[in-house]
Amino acid sequence: RSRVAACNSKTLIRKREGKAATEAAFHQIQGSLEADRPLEIVQIDHTKVDLMLVDDVTRASIGRPWLTLVMDIHTRMVLGFLLSLEAPSTTSVALALTQAVLPKDSWRAERLIENSWPTCGLPRCVHVDNGAEFHSRAFERGCEQHGIQIAYRPPATPRYGGHIERLMGTLMHRIQALPGTTFSNVVERGDYRSEERACLSFREFERILALEVLGPYHNEIHRGLGQPPIAKWTSSIETAASRYPLDAQAFLLDFLPYETRVIRRDGVRLFNIQYQDGGLAHLLGRPDTRLRVKYDPRNLSSVYVELPDGDHVRVPYADLRREPITLWEHRTAVRRLKDEGRRSVDETSIFTAIREQRAILEEARGQSREARRSVVRREVAHRHAGSAPEPFPAGATEEDADRIPMPPPGAHSGVEIW
């Protein structure tokens, strides 16, 4: 009789609330994801932050940012994070993973953060959900080149992401003490006016979040560990055989989105923009060889041509007078030009449209939240794109044995999701 009642309840919940609610109510826990050493398994996930931010200049709302987290399973340390005004993408994963792998002393110094953040090194395995950004060719290729295994959660089973989702829940709970919080749902928020109470800019909140992670979270006793994550890391990393990428700059490039192109006498053309550099001369005369041309969506002033041996050549605009732009600005400009009835869109018209867009956004900054968000979005992209990687700590053994130069690409398969 009790079994029948349970079956009826399960069926009822499935009909009323769906599979996810049924899983949460009735699934028997079969153990949890565990690792034997640091960097053996790391999890990556995203969440929209429960907080409204404001523009640096006008102090008016620009909406909620996204947070991408990278967490070490063995020690529960936060290895890296990315705060962004962009929705999760191939690029946000690449940037968060790059921060996780590389040393972070310069990043802390730029933000006046004294707390230590000693984590760095290549993970053996990344555990992720089935988002499109984790199935992108850039992410899969980068992991393959650096000997990183990808483990995907079964679809529609959030329990398999328990460690990092609990961490995100912990951080969001603490964020709800800040002015401008949206809380986790409309019931909790009640009549609290989040947008009116918001007072933290993107930079200010990024620093607060870092202080929260590197201070209380890393140094308080973790219930699942019985000790602080930083203590677990310190004691465990001494005996772990850590791996490091030989070239910090190339590591990010290995995860950036790309298109394939044949190198011609006038250089290479991407997004209707011409790029040229003398370093491409030796690649001429190979009409049947398509090479990967990688780009950073935050700054299209240069692209990176991957040579057959795996090295990269940085190739700037052919017209060096042009200003840096983001891919988002480029796409907005092209869409606007086509809406105006332009049958063909050339490089000059794109840059002219972007300059006009920027002038309009600056003028509208005080009146429109979307305009403010767009301006801050560009400022954040340019600031972060200019950050140079730093060397690994003294005494660290740099090895790149797992980095595998990928064979030249086949037929063009379209623009990568970024």
TrEMBL record:
Residue ranges, annotated region (Disordered): 365-418
Domain of life (superkingdom): Bacteria
Annotated Gene3D superfamilies: Ribonuclease H-like superfamily/Ribonuclease H
A molecular function (GO) term: nucleic acid binding
Compositionally biased spans, kind Basic and acidic residues: 365-379
Pfam families on file: Mu-transpos_C (PF09299)
BP term (GO), one: DNA integration
Integrase catalytic domain location: 34-237
UniProt name for this protein: Integrase
Phylogenetic placement of the source organism: Bacteria, Pseudomonadati, Pseudomonadota, Alphaproteobacteria, Acetobacterales
